[in-house]
Each structure stands twice: as C-alpha cells, then as structure tokens.
Specification:
The protein has 720 residues and is α/β, with parallel strands linked by helices. 34% of the residues lie in helices and 23% in strands. It holds the Pfam family GFO_IDH_MocA.
C-alpha cells in the first residue's frame, strides 16, 4: 500500500510503498477512501522537517536540554547517534481519515466489515485504528464531509470547555479550517459569533455563514469592535484557533472579554500572559486538549476502556459522533471549505506549497483498487540454505539504534523485519539492507530459509512470539526480559528442550570487553559485588511501568544486572531479597535494592535507582575478591586495586551488544550452538520474579520456593 510520510532529516514529503498494517486487538482495519489535509498542523510538521539542524533545535529547547544531559552521561558520539537515529524515523502525516472497515480485531463488537467509518488514521491506503478513535458515518453524510470529523471534534472540544449558553457572544480568533468549523458549531449552540482573521477570503467565508467577521489588517481595532458589538459589556468567551508566536493575541482576548469571561486556547500562540489582564476581570483561561477526554490516555485509546457516560458525557469518540450527527442534520456545512480535491498520487500538488493563497481544506482521494499487501521487497538480496538467516520482529528505537547496526557489523543475513504498522519495518529494512519489510511476522515463521527469529517488541509479546517461533522450528533471540511470568518461562523452557533450539536473551553486559576482563581478574571463589544502575526517572504513564505490558522496570531492566552478577559470580542465584524505597512500595517500583545469594557463596547487591542525577554515571559495578577491588564505570573504564601488573583500561562505551551479535551470527552459521547455557538465562529470569515476590512477602525468597531451576545441558558454550 501507499502512505504519505515526512522525512524529518532530509525534509522531503514522500509517498512511500509500505506493507499494509495488520489489524490489532481492540482495533479495526480501514480501507481509506478520503482524507483531509490539515494545512495548519501538517504545514508545521513539513516545515519543521525542512528546517536545518540548528533551526530544529531552536524550535525544541526542552529537547536540547535533554540532549545536553544525555551527553554528560553517555558521551557526545552516542548522544548524536541517538539524535540522528530519531531524525531518521519518518513521521506519518494525517489524522482525518474516512473509509470502509475490512477487518475487525479481537474484542471489537461495535463495528463490522463493510461499515463506513471516520477515524484519526493517517494518509495511508489502509489504517488500523483503536475502536475508541473510530465512529460510524451516517448514510446521508458523504465521505468528503465525514473527512472533517476529527477537525470538527477539535473545535467542538474547545466549545465544550468554554461552555456557552444560548444567546452569549463568543469571539473566534483565527478563521482557518478549525476556526470556521467552530463558528458554525457555536451558531448551532445559539450563540452570536464574532470572527477575527487577517485573511480577507476567510473573513468573507465566515460572513457568508452569518458570522460577524472582520479583518483587523484592514484597520479595524478588534477590541473596540467587540466592545461595540456587545454594548460595552465585552465577549462572554473567546476561543483562540489561531497559530502565531505573538503574545498580542492572548492580550487582546483578555481586553475584549467581559468580567469573569472565559478564554479557551485551541491553537498555538505566544503565552506571555500579563497578570493584570486576568486579575482585574477575574478571567479564566484553559488550553483545550485535542479531540476531548480520553486523548493521550492509553487505557482509553489503546486498551478500549470507555469512560462511564454518566460521569464523562463527551469523550473524543462521542465528539466524533456529535460532529457526524451535525453533518447529517445539516447543522454543519463543510462543502464551501473544500478548496481542492487531489488524487493520492498527485499529493505534491498540496504538499509542494502549503502556504499558497486561498487554501483552506484539501481532500485526498484514494484509489478504489488499493492492494492490501503485507510484504514489500526492499532489496534484491538472495539467500542460500545453511547461511544462518535472520528475521526480526519489532522495528522500534532499540532495533533501529542497536540491533540493525550491530547485526550489519556482524555481517548477518537479514531476510525479514516486521512491525504491525508496516512503516517502521520498511524504514529499517532500507537502513539495514534487509530483503523484506512485513507487517505480518508469521511470514518469517513459515519461511523455511529463516533459521533464527529476533524478538524486539514490547515485553508482553516476548513469550508468546518466542513460543510461536520455537513451534515453527526456529532458534530464538529475545530482547530482555524473556517473559513476564513463571508459567511462560516454563513453557519456553519445555519447548526449547523439545525442539532442541537455541534461546538467547539480550543480556549483553556479560559480553562487554570490560566485563570479560573484570571476570578474568577476579578469579574463582566467592566475591562481593555491588552493581548500581542510575536508571533515571521515567513518568508513571510510560508502558514499561504497566505490569501487564512492560512488567515493571525490575523485571524489564534490572534483569540485565542479575545476569551480569551471575556471570561475574560464575554461579547460580539460590535466594533473593528486595527492599524498595518508601514506606509502602508498589510492585512496579523502580527504586530498590536487590540482594542475591549465590550457590558458591557470592553476595551481590544490585541498586536500581530512578531518583538519581542524570549527570552521574548511569551504570557502575564494584567487585571485591581476595584483597582485590575492581571498579567498572559506565562501560568506559575499568580500574583495578591490588591487582599485580594491571591498573586499568579504557574503551569507548561498550555494553557488549557487538560481541553478542558476532557470537550469535557465527553460532548460527555453525548450526545453532548455544552461546550461553539456557539454565543461566532461566536462573536469571526466575531471580527477577523472586525479587518481586520477596518485596510482596517482605522476606528472603529461595528460588526453590519459586520453581526449581532446570538442568539443561548446552551443546556448546562459546562464552560462560
């Protein structure tokens, strides 16, 4: 299928051939017929993409600060690589989509194949959209009209916040697409509407709909005009739908408001507010959030959990439905706002000049014979049996920044990369010289040439995909964690043994040259290990904190250090105790100390903290043994105390990914021999579960209390 994307690095707007997305649980798959180009929002994104690096930085000062902080901890080059990697990821454009449902995901009952719907899907021939962001289109509403649903909901949410009553005077500042729609909706609410814009054509359009509109550029003072129109009282409310960096707009809104008036911001303007403007009249000011309640709430949007109508009458979906009803009842007329209709293949007629005079609303028309292809060939690479051929499931930031470069450096044979949406898979396939981009990972499972499947998705998918790959007779590499429950761990362990296949987890720290050197210097016998992860704060709404999706940061991230301590100890964990910060810590804590007792007497303390300074080293390991002390700092340096003939070594920041991938690729080409005994991976995973159980029970937990570790023999151990 074809999709319009914005290249943020080069600044080009592209019609890209990508795999059609797969319908997800809780979503519907839509074949697009029309989309509306939001000239204001999309122009901002396109112009941001075309700006040079310095200009991009100036537009995002908060991001610049994050970059500077990252440089302090990770170094200049790794930080710049991360920044450029982010810019290399294309941005899908569009959020006003109309089409026909062609597939329904699990858990969706309110839609059926064949339904005509409006959604916030992108400019793509097929889109998979969560059910709470989709609404059915009435029979008497055309696809063109329905394409205004999302834009209309943005204006409607601003109106709901300003809460107008019949007969009130409301000013709309900015008569662009959203502003003109907002004016009509206010009129339907029984309001007198005054419109302000510097574009005379838009002013004339508003007047044609009965709006009292003026162009301040023609010499009329907007504040005095509003005062005259309200007999000196002032406007009951002001809705700002303009886009400008000027602070004058908010100042004028305050001046033209009556005492205790309301101001709602829907657009983007300068917000250097003068206290006196608001103090004297006791004005209220509120910023409207997109389409309405539920926006940016994963529980509502992604998980489909609706808000009770008795408590939240108007959600974003209900706002969509209200706009469609207004279109059906002819309370909202959008046909006069359409200034051009363009075939999808001629998209450059719109995006070539998004500032051309007279443009208000542009409609993209999609072909009726769109092809729902799940696989796109990206390169002409061919493969032979027994070469060690890989397929990758997941095309996120980690895959882009670490997996693809590492596998390319290891000269891996990459045949597939799959992502549910398709676009990210196509982007990384081009970057990594991968033969095929796909939206259906099952294609690589059924391909007999593929020897190993690499899973880099969100954590809740690791176990199920690993089991599917093993069932299909593939070796498996899974980014940490291996799974999120003991039951899943047992199932994977049993399958790996039955199928005689290698299962490798992305515990890369043990492969770092500094860790390898540290282990060799420590020698045999029990040790004391103190490992600190200054992990940094992550907001509570990020998916990794969700125990069902990410498993929490202890299982999801601290497992790295359990494996590292196991490697340095040369033994297996037998018991665990975890204490977390606070008087009543929760299961998904990210501030904790984990105490590990090993079979050979080694003690290890893992401090996983999220409340430290980002300017301090992110990772630090200290090991004590036989009157020797070794300190590994942030994977850049290793210092030794009491070690004859060795004081230390330095290297570029190396967490061991490269070496792990080299061993993985070489092992696969030699028939798939284990690079780490699976019993160590099993033991590490079980220990991370035991840490959480210890927190809940408030006592030491022996691993035999969880489930006795398996005794699996590795065919060959390349590195132990």
């Amino acid at each position: 299928m074809k999709q319009i994307i914005q290249d943020l690095k080069q600044g080009n707007t592209i019609l890209e051939e990508v795999p059609a997305p797969q319908v997800k649980s809780g979503q519907v798959l839509i074949k697009t017929s029309r989309t509306l180009v939001s000239l204001g929002t999309e122009r901002m994104l396109v112009e941001f993409g075309k700006a040079n690096f310095i200009a991009k930085a100036r537009q995002q000062p908060d991001k610049v600060k994050q970059v500077l902080d990252k440089m302090k901890t990770d170094g200049v080059m790794p930080t710049l690589e991360a920044v450029f990697n982010k810019l290399n990821q294309p941005l899908p454009l569009g959020y006003c989509n109309v089409g026909t449902v062609v597939a329904v995901g699990k858990g969706v009952s309110e839609f059926q194949v064949g339904d005509r719907v409006a959604s916030n899907g992108n400019h793509a021939e097929f889109v998979s959209v969560p059910k709470n962001l989709v609404a059915k289109v009435p029979e008497n509403v055309s696809d063109e009209e329905a394409a205004f649903t999302v834009i209309g909901a943005i204006g409607l949410q601003g109106i709901r916040l300003i809460n107008p009553t019949f007969g009130e005077t409301i000013v709309v500042t900015g008569l662009g697409l959203i502003g003109l729609v907002t004016c009509q909706l206010l009129q339907a609410n029984g309001c007198k509407v005054i419109g302000l814009d510097f574009d005379q054509q838009k002013v004339d359009l508003a007047k044609a709909k009965g709006v009292t509109a003026i162009n301040p550029g023609a010499g009329t003072d907007p504040v005095k005009f509003v005062q005259e129109q309200t007999n000196g009282v002032g406007a009951d409310g002001v809705i700002i739908t303009a886009s400008s960096k000027s602070n004058e707009i908010i100042h004028q809104a305050a001046e033209m408001s009556r005492k205790k008036g309301r101001i709602v911001l829907v657009g983007v303007i300068g917000l250097d507010i003068q206290r006196s403007d608001f103090f004297e009249k006791e004005l209220s000011f509120q910023v409207s959030c997109s389409y309405g309640p539920g926006r940016y709430d994963d529980d509502y949007e992604q998980k489909g959990m609706d808000y009770p109508i008795g408590y939240v009458r108007w959600t974003e979906k209900r706002n969509f439905e209200a706009i469609l009803q207004a279109l059906s009842l002819k309370q909202l007329d959008v046909q006069p706002l359409i200034t051009e209709r363009v075939k999808l293949e001629n998209f450059e007629e719109i995006y070539g000049d998004m500032r051309k005079q007279g443009s208000i609303a542009s409609i993209l028309e999609f072909p009726e014979d769109s092809v729902q292809n799940s696989k796109v060939q990206v390169s002409e690479r061919t493969f032979k049996a027994s070469e060690g051929i890989f397929g990758i499931i997941g095309a996120g930031n980690f895959t882009s920044s670490t997996i693809i470069p590492g596998m390319n450096a290891a000269d891996a044979n990459l045949k597939y990369i799959a992502s549910a949406g398709g676009l990210s898979a196509k982007t990384l396939a081009k970057k990594g010289d991968v033969a095929y981009a796909s939206s259906d990972y099952k294609e690589m499972l059924s391909d007999e040439q593929v020897d190993m499947v690499m899973i880099t998705t969100r954590h809740n998918l690791h176990a199920s995909m690993a089991k599917e790959a093993l069932e299909a007779g593939k070796h498996v590499f899974v980014e940490k964690p291996l799974c999120l429950s003991i039951e899943e761990l047992e199932e994977i362990s049993t399958l790996a043994e039955e199928k005689n296949k290698m299962v490798v987890v992305g515990f890369n720290r043990r492969f770092s040259p500094l860790a390898v050197k540290m282990k060799s210097l420590l020698g045999e016998g029990p040790k004391n290990i103190v490992a600190t992860m200054n992990a940094g704060f992550i907001p509570g709404d990020v998916w990794i904190h969700d125990l069902e999706v990410g498993g929490g940061r202890i299982i999801g991230e601290a497992c790295h250090y359990i494996d590292l301590c196991t490697y340095l100890a040369g033994s297996k964990v037998v018991s665990v105790c975890m204490n977390a910060l606070g008087t009543d810590p929760e299961e998904n804590t990210d501030n904790a100390s984990i105490l590990l007792k090993y079979e050979n007497g080694t003690n290890a303390v893992i401090n996983y903290f999220a409340n430290g300074s980002k300017s301090y080293s992110k990772e630090r390991i200290e090991a004590y043994s036989q009157e020797r002390t070794l300190v590994l700092d942030n994977w850049r340096s290793l210092k030794a105390y009491g070690v004859k003939g060795f004081s230390g070594m330095k290297t570029k920041q190396d967490k061991g990914h490269k070496k792990q991938f080299e061993l993985l690729v070489n092992s696969l080409k030699k028939g798939g021999k284990a690079i780490v005994p699976f019993e160590e991976t099993y033991n590490t995973t079980l220990a991370s579960f035991a840490a959480i159980e210890s927190l809940k029970q408030g006592k030491w937990i022996g691993l035999n209390e969880m489930n006795a570790p398996k005794k699996l023999e590795a065919e060959e151990v390349v590195m132990n």
